[in-house]
Known about the structure:
single chain, WH_DNA-bd_sf, Arc Repressor Mutant, subunit A, three-stranded antiparallel β-sheet, alpha+beta
Amino acid sequence: MTTPPDLDPVIHAQARLRVVAALSALPTGDHMTFPYLQKVLDMTAGNLSVHLGKLEEARYVEITKTHQGRRPVTYVALTSRGRAAFDDYTTAIRALLDGAAGTEQP
């Protein structure tokens, strides 16, 4: 019997998985505004902020605060490290599911 693959605990939390999945759909180097990401994920600003903080601490996302005119804007982007971690995570999930599909009960 093979050992199941390790799942990245930073990404594995449901909310963070949704954040990383949404950002991974963007082309490399592109970003999304905080309010748009919040709307897409249907999350409160506080909840999204907490999870983005964890992802930023792991260097999976980059948060840029700037201004458009006089209005503050926050952009969120998936880093190359975050994209690689998400790719590894999805590979591990597929391996786990493929392994589960191949097990037979006596």
